Amino acid sequence: MKPKITTDSHLLDTVHRHEWKQRDAWRALRILSEFVDGFDNLSDLEPAVSVFGSARTKPGSSEYLLGERLGSALAKAGFGVITGGGPGAMEAANRGAREAGGVSIGLGIELPFEQRLNDFIDLGMDFRYFFVRKTMFVKYSQAFCVLPGGFGTMDELFEALTLVQTKKITRFPVVLLGVDYWSGLIDWLRDRMLHTTKITEEDLDLILLTDDVDEAVAHVIKESEYLRDEASGKKDV
Ligand SMILES: CC(C)=CCNc1ncnc2c1ncn2[C@@H]1O[C@H](COP(=O)(O)O)[C@@H](O)[C@H]1O
């Protein structure tokens, strides 16, 4: 089946870009309105953590259960849980949060195939543009927790790391859950990127790698407290 054309794909169409000239100007307003909707819906949110992970994680699998436990632990610690609103690891984290009585948020994305928000979301939004949605993940969360995932998950992970490394955001905790899954990547970052000085030791220290949901949540709490103290002037920037 031929994939449906999405709004995002029109924007990124390089072949017909002359034809899109007029329409792209209008598109800018649509993008603006998507930002406004996001700010409007999310600015009153309690402290929240974004959880990322594969859309393909199977319900009942160990990775799904890890996502559920993470969502639940974050909710019990008082954090809202924000995901991409889709299936798999996103659903698992939303489910854990909802079942623990927390606030479960899903920021969905228009895709070329049929897609709806998962069934465990209290506050849901659908975005047309990936980049607008990504702004919301960063702006409205205190930390990123990353479950095993593919390209989409890597994109979200490395965006956060780049923002911290370039000091666009400060001390934003990034936790990778799933030692077995992620340790190959961490080894490569250390042995290749760090070894050839493309990143620094300090950059690697931005990431906590663990299988332990409680350790992940404790880390997020500790970093959030530091940021709160910093904002209230108790700590030097
Ligand atoms: C079965 C399937 C592919 C469904 C796709 N449905 C999706 N719905 C919502 N967010 C998504 C989806 N696919 C990728 N993402 C985004 O990319 C990440 C997962 O991508 P991946 O599966 O690791 O690469 C998620 O954290 C999410 O923000």
From TrEMBL:
Signal peptide: none annotated. Pfam families: Lysine_decarbox. Keywords: Cytokinin biosynthesis, Hydrolase. One of its GO terms (molecular function) is cytokinin riboside 5'-monophosphate phosphoribohydrolase activity. It is an enzyme of class 3 (hydrolase). GO terms for cellular component: cytosol. Its EC number is 3.2.2.n1. SUPFAM superfamilies: MCP/YpsA-like. GO terms for biological process: cytokinin biosynthetic process. The keyword Hydrolase applies. It catalyses: 9-ribosyl-trans-zeatin 5'-phosphate + H2O = trans-zeatin + D-ribose 5-phosphate; N(6)-(dimethylallyl)adenosine 5'-phosphate + H2O = N(6)-dimethylallyladenine + D-ribose 5-phosphate. Belongs to the LOG family. PANTHER family: CYTOKININ RIBOSIDE 5'-MONOPHOSPHATE PHOSPHORIBOHYDROLASE. This is Cytokinin riboside 5'-monophosphate phosphoribohydrolase. It comes from Stackebrandtia albiflava.
